[in-house]
Amino acid sequence: MLSGKRLWQVRRTRYSYNILGLVKKGEIEKAEEVLQSMIDRRVYPDIFAYNALIKGYVLTSDARKAFKTFNNLKKRGLMPSDITYTSMFAVCGRTKSAEILDKVMKEIERQGVSLNTLTFNAMLTAMANCGMVDEVFDEVTKLDKPDIDTYRSLLLACARSSM
């Protein structure tokens, strides 16, 4: 039999996987309801649950809800992960939400977060999609080892600037 703390962790994991499953099926509203149900039942969501929901907002191109969820996870004392930031960059780039992108980037700077290469490249792509061409080039100079995706983001920024 599971002890109280272990049972609580199992319940939280089940909820989180339920949210992810609903997101994968495109049932974002139901996923939101499950997250709220967790909170109502005092089964506090972990970063996995929040990341799953943010992924749903990427799929539905809803930057506003993604940013609200991003802020909610921080209010609950959780630290955004690389996955969180990558998803936020994806939704900002997809929706050309430069204002939200700027807020996320300022949060990263304020927290002193060091992005991995994948997340950094997602940020560059989002910046390029939002028309922040000069800023893309400024950011690339901060990267020690640019990879093929870094250069792809640079090319995208150049292409966007000539449109």
TrEMBL record:
Methyltransferase: is it a keyword of this entry? no
Is Repeat a UniProt keyword of this protein?
yes
Xref: PROSITE patterns: PPR
PPR repeat segments:
46-80
An example Pfam family from this entry, by short name, is PPR
Q: Which InterPro entries match?
A: PPR/CCM1_RNA-binding, PPR_rpt, TPR-like_helical_dom_sf
Entry keyword set: Repeat
Query: What PANTHER family does this protein's entry cite?
Result: TETRATRICOPEPTIDE REPEAT (TPR)-LIKE SUPERFAMILY PROTEIN-RELATED
Protein name as catalogued: Pentacotripeptide-repeat region of PRORP domain-containing protein
